[in-house]
Specification:
heterodimer, A: 95 residues, five-stranded mixed beta sheet, 26% helix, 29% strand, globular, B: 610 residues, alpha+beta, Aldehyde Ferredoxin Oxidoreductase,  A, domain 1, Aldehyde Ferredoxin Oxidoreductase Protein, subunit A, domain 2, Aldehyde Ferredoxin Oxidoreductase Protein, subunit A, domain 3, 3 domains, 19 strands
Chain lengths: 95, 610
């Protein structure tokens, strides 16, 4: 698979936990490879914070947006492209 | 059942009546009961030959209602420290007046011995109402007139003293009849929307102070303890009500709504703010936050205590700003200096102004000015350009005092834009400025804005919850299809919450079934989930019947032209407009309405007696 470069943005408690606002990683275009690449920089806990290994997909309570679109609203397997921006939010709300 | 205090400011009379169990069984309390009373007032006026359309919102015929509900002030009822205020008409919109606030005033009103206060007529001189241990009295407020909100609260708290004392009042904005003036309580809490502070000002009612320690009855104590514990645990263990809101407050939404391309910027010219990070909840927490403040009985504690430590916008201690305030005063005006936004929000509290309508009106004025539509002599030196922090802060106090250009801003964006020849630049529905979500990126909230009885309002039916936040389940924000059913059920359920009365944020963790159980235990009535949703639907329909009497119907269930015709220029919703007519047709069908008017069959089904 082709290697792509993806920018990851962290928000709220994820930002404060990892003391990181944004990072750029190289991955093979799947969500898991992006998360694993990020975990090399942020620490292994990051994987379980955003990914459900048992189910083999992103954790249901995380809000993950690729170029502003929630992955739950996108059809089919997520394939990240070069320069995509992935925003990751923990569960949050307001009004 | 409890008691209702009916005050006539013209006659200076005070009468006590019993809360009706028959009415409460059909409309609960809070908003629902107030809607019922408003309808009865309109019928009385009609019988006496006055058309509802001829009622002046700032005249003595308008009636102001402060209402608690069966949940208010009950220890263990989750987040029940709120009250609802309604008026026959809003000066800003001409539609029904409606607003809701937290803090301590709601429960302390109940502890003082009353479920509700109904204020009729108008006084010729400033007065305040004191209710202490069940005894109500109108007192001279000459020495308070002209005082700001913080001073008024402090002076009345000192004067009355005692246990469980709270003050609801107006500031200079209400006294000067600014159309977006709000009613403030406990310093920084606001019944913010639809200009009810101006209604209070028109009645020369400066404040209401309540105090007492009457116990609030619970019909089935044991059952209530069990349900309460389960609901409080659910809230504690919920990641939103247990972690997200306590840690960051509502401002945490700035970044996510901006990422979704729905954070209105520069008077809604786009939904992407390039400087969102600078005014975000994360920045507020890192730089301005001192501590949290909870409303009475609330396990969430989303309130922020903040300060701007130095510089031209220094504020030693304030509260907020909330997400909506940051958006309206910051993003909509393109002001990226959070110091200035905190200061402008503080002024809104100090002078008693609704930050949503205030910020949105300033943003409309900025666009009018940049398009060359406002004569220089009208501005009187106020440099209203997008991004101008100093002008933002100055515009707020000028509005409260109607000083210089403030006299135009005090009319709200609809009238302001009409005066300067561009009504399409007012980002309002039925005259009420819309809150912080662009329907081109979040379609369901657009249908809710269009059909909300009080005008452009997000908390009438907060579909942002499923559309962006995925609560209770995720639906696609940019699809119009299927949104009508979500809007309807959210609007109906919200009526239940506002009639209970407690905080809408509980609904991130609790559903209609939980509410049915809580209400059943408190009242002793056997309420099911379906029954409480029917009550909510009944309230929403009767409120609709009321606004129909003012002349509002399907033609007014619309959105500003910009959101219907100008494609979103950038971001994930690029190219999108709001497909309102498609959603509205489905919504009316579900509601049983024709052109925004409930059918006789629907009213009969809901057992609404006209």
């Amino acid at each position: 698979m082709t290697t792509v470069s993806v920018k990851i943005l962290l928000f709220a408690t994820l930002r404060s936990k990892y003391k990181t606002r944004e990072l750029t990683v190289a991955c093979n275009g799947t969500l898991l490879s992006m998360i694993e690449s990020a975990a090399k920089l942020l620490g292994p806990e990051f994987i379980d914070d955003v990914y459900d290994r048992k189910k083999g997909k992103a954790r249901n309570d995380m809000i993950i947006m690729v170029n502003g679109r929630n992955i739950k609203d996108l059809e089919g397997e997520i394939t990240l492209k070069d320069n995509d921006v992935v925003a990751i939010f923990p569960p949050l709300a307001g009004g | 059942m409890g008691k209702i205090l009916r005050v006539n400011l013209t006659a200076k009379s005070l009468n006590v009546e019993k809360t009706s169990e028959d009415v409460a069984r059909k409309y609960l309390g809070g908003k629902g009961y107030a809607v019922y009373l408003i309808y009865r007032y309109l019928r009385e006026y009609e019988k006496a030959g006055t058309s509802p359309k001829d009622i002046d919102a700032l005249g003595p015929k308008n009636v102001l209602i402060f209402a608690t509900g069966p949940g208010t002030g009950v220890p263990g009822f989750p987040s029940s420290g709120r009250y609802h205020v309604m008026a026959l008409r809003s000066p800003l919109t001409g539609s029904i007046g409606s607003a809701n606030s937290g803090g301590e005033f709601g429960p302390f009103l109940k502890f003082s011995g009353f479920d509700m206060i109904v204020v009729e007529g108008a006084s010729e001189t400033p007065v305040y109402l004191a209710i202490v241990d069940g005894e109500a009295e109108l007192r001279d407020a000459s020495s308070l007139w002209g005082k700001n909100v913080f001073d008024t609260c402090r002076m009345l708290m000192d004067k009355v003293g005692g246990k469980n004392t709270s003050v609801a009042c107006i500031g200079p904005a209400g006294e000067n009849l600014a159309y977006m003036a709000c009613i403030m309580n406990d310093d920084h809490r606001a019944a913010g929307r639809t200009g009810l502070g101006a209604v209070m000002g028109s009645k020369k009612l400066k404040a209401i102070v309540v105090s007492g320690d009457e116990k609030v009855p619970v019909a089935e104590r044991e059952r209530f303890s069990e349900v309460s514990k389960r609901c409080l645990d659910a809230m504690k263990n919920n990641p939103v009500t247990g972690v997200g809101l306590p840690t960051y407050g509502t401002a945490i939404l700035i970044n996510i709504i901006n990422t979704a391309g729905g954070l209105p910027y520069k008077n809604w010219q786009t939904g992407v703010n390039p400087d969102a990070e600078k005014i975000s909840g994360e920045t507020l927490a890192e730089t301005y936050l001192i501590s949290r403040r909870s409303c009475w009985g609330c396990p969430i504690g989303c309130g922020r205590v903040t300060s701007v430590k130095s510089g031209p916008f220094q504020v030693l201690a304030s509260e907020g700003p909330e997400y909506e305030s940051i958006w309206a005063l910051g993003s909509s005006t393109a002001v990226k200096d959070l110091d200035a936004v905190v200061k402008a929000n503080h002024y809104c509290d100090e002078f008693g102004l609704d930050p949503i309508s205030m910020g949105s009106t300033i943003a409309a004025a900025m666009e009018l000015n940049e398009k060359g539509c406002i004569p220089t002599e009208d501005l009187q030196g106020l440099d209203l350009r997008f991004g101008n922090s100093a002008a933002l802060v100055e515009a707020v106090w000028r509005t409260a005092y109607k000083a210089g250009f403030g006299k135009y801003l005090a009319l709200g964006s609809k009238k302001l834009c009409e005066i300067y020849g561009h009504p399409e630049l007012s980002m309002s529905v039925k005259g009420l400025e819309m809150p912080a979500y662009d329907p081109r990126a979040i379609k369901g909230i657009g249908l809710n804005y269009a059909t909300a009885n009080r005008g452009g309002c997000h908390v009438t039916g907060y579909t942002v919850s499923p559309e962006v936040l995925g609560i209770p389940e995720k639906i696609d924000p940019i699809k119009a299809e299927g949104k009508a059913k979500w809007v309807k059920i959210f609007q109906d359920f919200t009526c239940v919450v506002n009639s209970t009365v407690n905080c809408l944020f509980t609904t991130f963790a609790l559903g209609a079934k939980d509410y049915a159980e809580l209400l059943s235990a408190v009242t002793g009535w056997k309420l099911t989930e379906d029954e409480i949703l029917k009550i909510g639907e009944r309230i929403y329909n009767l409120e609709r019947v009321i606004i129909n009497k003012y002349g509002f119907d399907g033609k007014d269930d619309t959105l500003p032209k910009r959101l219907l015709e100008e494609p979103m220029p950038e971001g994930p919703a690029k190219g999108q407009v709001t497909e309102l007519e498609e959603m509205k047709g489905e919504y009316y069908k579900l509601r049983g309405w024709v052109n925004g008017v409930p059918t006789k069959e629907k009213l009969a089904e809901l057992e609404i007696e006209l």
